[in-house]
Structure formats: structure tokens, C-alpha cells
Amino acid sequence: MKHKGFTLIELTIVMVIICIVAVIGGVILVQAFTAGNTSRNLIDATWQARLALERMTNEIREAHNIISTADNQHILSFTGINGTTITYNLSGNHLVRNNINLADGVTALTFNYLDANDQTLAYSPLDIDAVRCINIATTISKNNITTSFQTIACPRNIL
Length: 159
Prior knowledge:
This protein is an alpha+beta fold.
């Protein structure tokens, strides 16, 4: 007499195959989600850095004069187009403009002052009258994803 159905061995083999396929699919999904999160963190860090640097560059180009701030390469103060003092600095891990947060996750911010020959000026003491351009460098991290940017801004309205 022949019984129709599956044997225990057949069922076990099918279950093992399904488990192997599920594990492989799970690994692929985890890698896809990880790549998506990494991409999102990189994009977020990149846009924050670009927007902050663009704003700083635009305002520095319109600056009327650079104000010395204790010859510190991490703080930049200048007089803006409307006569107000604008200060950029690193506060904790925030890039701030006059105490207003521009970017989060900032791990480094430096301002290097360049003369008319594109030579870096010394900080002690900083010769404000010799400053022709400012090299701005920043590093932003988001969930272990780090990106660095650098730009040069040359004030057009130095008195």
C-alpha cells in the first residue's frame, strides 16, 4: 500500500533549504539598509558643510573689515555689509554664526588667513591689514561618517 504525502526527510530538506535562502536574503537586506543609512549620513553631512561654507563665503566676500579675535584660527569675526559684527566659531560640535547654529556634528573648523601672495599669515600677531583671503576648512561627522570641505573666500570690500 502506497501512501501519498511527504516523508520526514523530504520535509527536513525543504526546511533547511528555506532557512538557507532566508538567511542569505536577510544578510542582503541588512547590507542594503546599512548602505542606505551610510549614504543618508554622508549626504546629510555633505549638505550641512556645503550650506555652511556657502553662507560663510558669501558673507566674507561682502565683509568690510576683518576683526582680530585674539589671533585664534578657530574664530572669525568681521563687519558685515550692513555694519553688524558677524562671528563664526566652533561651539562644542556646532558651527555657529552669532550664537545661531548652522551645522551639527562639526569636529573641526579652521580659518587660515592669506596675504596678497596667497601665503599663510602667522597668528601671533595676526596682521589684519595684510589679510586678502581666508581659507576655511571644516570637518563634519554623522554617525561615524566623516566628510571634510575647504574653500577660500576673498573679501571684496575691505576698507
